[in-house]
Amino acid sequence: MLRALLVLSICSLSFVSFANTQDTLSNTIETPLYKPLIERYILDEIKSLRQDNQRLKGELAKQIAEARLDSSDRAIQYTTSTVNNIFYIITAAASLLVLLGWRSLNDIKKSIKIDTAKKIQTLTGDYEKRLQQIENKMVERSKIIINNQQEISNTNSIHSLWMRAGLEKSEEDKISIYDEILEINPNDIEAMTYKADALLEIGEVRWALNLSNIAIEHDDEYSLAYWQRACAYAQLDRQAEAIKDIQKAISLSDTLNEEILNEKHFDKLRNNEQFQAFVSKPVNEIVI
């Protein structure tokens, strides 16, 4: 009986120790591992896209070369057959003319040479024009396909960069990602605006103001560009310009009216009477 109790006690202690070990391992395993996996997934996708583009370019070049060779072979075969038929016809006609005595053999030869040269030249010119037209069409289509593939690749790359930017915590890292987006598409006003917001967060107010101005030059109906410029003006204590841009931004997107009180960059405007009066107005009463 005592031996059985001793065995049960030892088993209980072993089970408790094993459970504690499993809890420790579970807590360790639950540490966030998703960020490196997402980055690895994005890199693999970009690598796969690049490999597909290289393969498509190779296949396209091969198809163009085969089309050119096929067209040239057909043109040569047709020209050869035509010349042979012409010579047969000419030979028969010459024989007939000699028998009938219409012309001398020398006159017939000269006439045959002239007519044959003209017809060959005409046929050759026609086929050269056709081959040139086919080649031009193939080149144009290949350019269109390559441009479309490049646009798709750029779109996928930009989408992947936006996903990375959403995962980053550091404003400096976000700015680097926005720069990569602008390298692919220098006219991306959304990337300019988000970069301006990140610059405001690290105190680069004038840089953010300059980027906001560039974004507005590209699209003067983009509400977030006016909003970021208003934030920059507020930080520089240029209150009149800031309030004017706030009004413009809300007139373009009335949902921004809900963000006024939560925008920390407007703290210097809190005591401004015009700002206070403007905040208290409904959206439909805003006048620019």
Give a structural overview.
Helix content is 81%, strand content 0%. Helix 4 runs antiparallel to helix 5. It is built from nine helices and no strands. It has two domains: 132 residues; 117 residues, Tetratricopeptide repeat domain (Serine Threonine Protein Phosphatase 5, Tetratricopeptide repeat). With 288 residues, it is an all-alpha fold. InterPro entries: TPR-like_helical_dom_sf (IPR011990), TPR_rpt (IPR019734), Ycf3 (IPR050498). This is Tetratricopeptide repeat protein. Keywords: Repeat, Signal, TPR repeat.
What distinguishing features does this structure have?
single chain, 288 residues, mainly alpha, Serine Threonine Protein Phosphatase 5, Tetratricopeptide repeat, 2 domains, 9 helices, 81% helix, 0% strand, disordered N terminus, disordered C terminus, TPR_rpt
Structural class: mainly alpha
State the separation between the terminal residues, measured CA to CA: 94 Å
| DSSP helical segment count | 9
What low-confidence regions span 5 or more consecutive residues with pLDDT below 50?
A: 2-8, 13-19, 22-31, 283-288
- Roughly how much helix do the residues carry, as a percent range? over 70%
Radius of gyration: 39 Å
**Overall mean pLDDT score?**
78
- The H/E string reads HHHHHHHHH
Give the secondary structure arrangement, pairings included.
Blueprint: H1 2-29, H2 34-100, H3 105-167, H4 171-184, H5 189-201, H6 205-218, H7 223-235, H8 239-252, H9 273-280
Helix pairs in contact: 2-3, 3-4, 4-5, 5-6, 5-7, 6-7, 7-8
Signal peptide: 1-19
Keywords: Repeat, Signal, TPR repeat
Protein name: Tetratricopeptide repeat protein
